[in-house]
Amino acid sequence: MAAPIWVWAFYVALTLFPSVLGNSEGDALYTLRRSLSDPDNVLQSWDPTLVNPCTWFHITCNQDNRVTRVDLGNSNLSGHLVQELGKLEHLQYLELYKNNIQGTIPTELGNLKSLISLDLYNNNISGTIPPSLGKLKSLVFLRLNDNRLTGPIPRELVGISSLKVVDVSNNDLCGTIPTSGPFEHIPLNKFLKHAPLKTMLLELFILLKVPDSDTHGYGDRLPMILQILTDLKYCSKLYSFEENPRLEGPELLGLASYDTNCS
Ligand SMILES: *[C@@H]1O[C@H](CO)[C@@H](O)[C@H](O)[C@H]1NC(C)=O
Ligand SMILES: *[C@@H]1O[C@H](CO)[C@@H](O)[C@H](O)[C@H]1NC(C)=O
């Protein structure tokens, strides 16, 4: 006697569904593993024959066994990133900082629609910042500093209203710095210097310390004090663009296009 159809359906769902779903993420990560050189064997537990990657070291999943974190900062990895990373559609944290990763940032990282943090700082990454990163509408942290990136800061990034921390310092970027969207209200002249917060606090301290002798108050300095207080408010956003010799400073809206002599 044949088993009822629902038994077969259940069996097929149970055996096929988790592996189809789970392994596509495992396969993507295993492709990354094969593209990296791993002298310290931090990726040793990345076994592609397991039903999903959720038990692998340095990987975190949600309750549905979808990958939400890849934590491989400071792991002595070299090699290249792979476009397959773009398949991890529940990924929130991609932490690959302080390695020696080369090559370019895959355009496909723009498909990581849940991404909160993209930390690729302190590597040896070259090429341009893909404009596709403008599709990362949940992104809060974008740290690409200390690499060998070239080209402009893509204007597509101004559409990410959640951005709070942007560090692209120590690269070879060119063109101008955006001044709209999340880049609005950044006290840029100060952020181009070192230790901006310290500088601002010191300025404020000096301005507040000695009241004007003739007005017995802060008189003429009140606008400056208010400006510094406003700037400090936006210090909850930390943006750094320093050490990019070819970067020209903030763009002047309505004037010449930003990307002259910059590609
Ligand atoms: C990193 O890997 C190299 C081999 O490529 C090794 O010589 C070195 O000791 C490793 N560094 C650390 C901190 O593990
Ligand atoms: C960075 O990558 C380039 C090749 O793209 C290579 O020549 C160079 O040695 C690398 N730098 C380090 C510190 O590994």
UniProtKB/TrEMBL annotation:
Highest taxon in the source lineage: Eukaryota
Gene3D superfamilies reported in the protein's UniProt record: Ribonuclease Inhibitor
Domain annotation Leucine-rich repeat-containing N-terminal plant-type: ranges: 23-62
Domain called Disease resistance R13L4/SHOC-2-like LRR: residue spans: 71-167
Signal peptide segment: 1-22
Entry keyword Transmembrane: no
Pfam families registered for this protein in UniProt: LRR_14, LRRNT_2
Keyword Signal assigned: yes
Descriptive protein name: Leucine-rich repeat-containing N-terminal plant-type domain-containing protein
High-level lineage: Eukaryota, Viridiplantae, Streptophyta, Embryophyta, Tracheophyta
